[in-house]
Design a protein that fits this description.
Length: 578
């Protein structure tokens, strides 16, 4: 029989592990002055002893996938044709270069310099353009497509895999962090099924902007290094209504610590490839879960427990910014609990727990308010996949860990929303205070992002008198509710429980937690429409603005990014087509 003590121990243990940070060895090399050439140093603010080595030419930069290749089997078939692959984690396959000219639409200086040790001047070289378009190999380059499966909309879909993505490198940077570089939209692979291996401009702009925006919102996510556009024709029926249109192919260089998904393990488990399953789980633990002892007989249980608590954390964070992923299939759920595979996502505007960002999701399976349920469903699929590696006792414990998911989620959710309201300490009525605010928003259709932001900006004195400044449009919406005044009084009373707290401190705290700008659909759409006319100014403006989502910015204000969405935004639809 399972003891409740066991569960508590596993949960506690999980939480403490989940917040452990990997130790980063100092890998800094120390070249002589005369060798500097095009290298330069800068001081790292967080560690004055550590010198950075940043390279300003791709010729001085090399990558490797040897850590992967040395440990995980690659499909022996080398030809690139669609097939079922067995007993392999990857297939070796080259990207297909575009046949037309390519251009660099945008790049992230922070990813290049911060993660990949590349001076941003590299981005202006033709070597870089070719590299991130998939047409140039560099030292150490061995492109791979990953074999995975997944449950899509609740149904086991069998083998899916990287049908239009290539893992082109792993890179260990100057901080000892290991990053995996992946091109998306870079051509067909053995996993392309009926697809063309390409991604179009509109979805690539959305992924590029949103993954970076999520990072600056403080949400675990893959990053985007570059966005390249070609003139290659890519045919898409954007709304699945028979209206096929010619679009242009684009490719994003995505960067993450790992691209393994729940579907990576399901693929092996569901095909009965248990020894490979064990090998992959051990590889993932060794590379990405440094606090788990690789020889611990309970390591798989520990791994599962960590994924459960980190997934609860991720979904609570999504909710805290009103983010709906749109396609929470198990193949889109990272084992490192980062947000991956941006498709028909959306940021909820008027508060609505039934908000469905993806117009192809008829039943609303992935509506915003169902994300935690779906997270638990996906974790259950992960547990089923891991079952062959667990003994009976471990299976029982793992089920108990999974049963603890709702608690983990709610406590994280409460913590995040407590801080969105600037509340210090905890009080048993906090969840009710949060819930009743959300109810008021729901009843009035008030804007989620700006209601919280304007609560951060308003003074308590103004709130007490309900003297809401004219341009605080979201608070005016919520104030239409007859109960807002009672809610405000309860909120003020709760704040008074911390007499040492000042209003200025509260506002500062809340403004660091509640963004003024998120990537609303209309903003992405406006940037896409311009990009389709080869005007990339708004892509770059949004990239700049969303880098500091908590800071009021003049250009963002002029562009209406903190205003109520324009009327035409109501007619916008985003589908799975990408
Ligand atoms: P997604 O909906 O982007 O998460 O993709 C689900 C699966 O379909 C993955 O296996 C993708 O690699 C594959 N896929 C999506 N679009 C394409 C495409 N245009 N060509 C080939 N495979 C694709
Ligand atoms: Mg996907």
């Amino acid at each position: 029989m399972l003891q409740s003590r066991d569960v508590a121990v596993v949960c506690l243990w999980t939480l403490s592990r989940a917040f452990c940070l990997a130790w980063a060895p100092d890998l800094i090399v120390n070249p002589k002055k005369s060798e500097l050439g095009s290298l330069h140093y800068a001081l790292n603010n967080s560690d004055h002893c550590q010198r950075r080595l940043i390279v300003s030419s791709l010729k001085l930069w090399s990558v490797s996938v040897e850590d992967v290749l040395g440990q995980l089997p690659v499909d022996p078939v080398k030809e690139n044709y669609v097939r079922k692959v067995k007993e392999s984690i990857f297939s070796h396959v080259y990207p297909t270069p575009f046949s037309s000219e390519t251009r660099l639409v945008a790049f992230s200086e922070d990813v290049l310099e911060g993660l990949l040790d590349l001076d941003s001047s590299v981005a202006h070289s033709s070597d870089f353009l070719q590299f991130v378009s998939g047409s140039k190999t560099i030292s150490g380059f061995v492109p791979l497509a990953h074999r995975y499966g997944g449950h899509q909309f609740g149904v086991w879909a069998g083998q899916l895999g990287d049908g239009r993505a290539h893992l082109i490198a792993t890179y260990v940077n100057r901080f000892g962090e290991r990053w995996e570089l992946q091109l998306k939209g870079s051509g067909k692979t053995p996993y392309s099924r009926n697809g063309d291996g390409r991604a179009v401009l509109r979805s690539s702009v959305r992924e590029f902007l949103c993954s970076e925006a999520m990072y600056y919102l403080g949400i675990p996510t893959s990053r985007a290094a570059s966005l390249v556009l070609s003139s290659d024709a890519v045919w898409r029926d954007q709304f699945y209504n028979g209206n096929v249109k010619k679009e242009r192919g684009a490719v994003v260089l995505r960067v993450a610590k790992s691209w393994f998904r729940i579907g990576s393990l399901e693929m092996l488990s569901n095909s009965g490839e248990y020894s490979l399953l064990k090998k992959l789980v051990d590889f993932i633990i060794k590379e990405h879960f440094p606090s788990i002892n690789t020889s611990d007989p309970h390591r798989v249980l520990a791994f599962f427990s960590t994924v459960v608590s980190q997934t609860a954390d991720l979904i609570a964070r999504w909710m805290s910014v009103g983010f709906a992923h749109g396609v929470c299939n198990t193949d889109n759920f990272s084992l490192l609990s980062i947000t991956i595979d941006y498709g028909p996502f959306g940021f909820m505007e008027k508060y609505d727990a039934d908000y469905i960002p993806n117009t192809s999701d008829d039943e609303g399976r992935y509506r915003i308010g169902n994300q935690a349920n779906v997270g638990m469903y996906n974790l259950n699929k992960l547990l089923l996949a891991l079952n062959p590696l667990l003994d009976d006792r471990q299976k029982q414990l793992a089920s108990a860990v999974l049963a603890g998911f709702p608690n983990l989620y709610y406590s994280r959710f409460t913590e995040l929303f407590r801080s969105k309201l600037g509340l210090l300490g905890d009080n048993e009525d906090d969840l009710a205070l949060i819930a009743s605010l959300l109810n008021l928003m729901e009843d009035t259709g008030a804007d989620f992002t700006m209601s919280f932001r304007q609560l951060s900006e308003i003074t308590l004195e103004q709130l007490a008198r309900l003297s809401i400044p004219q341009d605080f449009w979201a608070l005016h919406e919520i104030n239409q509710h007859k109960d807002f005044s009672a809610w405000s009084s309860a909120y003020l009373q709760r704040l008074q429980r911390n007499p040492e707290d000042t209003d200025a401190d509260r506002r500062q705290r809340m403004m660091r937690t509640n963004p003024r700008y998120v990537l609303r659909n209309w903003m992405a759409e406006s940037a896409v429409l311009k990009a389709e006319r080869n005007d990339f100014s708004e892509v770059r403006l949004l990239q700049r603005v969303l880098r500091q989502p908590f800071r009021r910015q003049k250009m963002a204000e002029v562009s209406g990014y903190s205003q109520k969405s324009p009327e035409w935004a109501n007619r916008l639809k985003v589908s799975c087509s990408s």
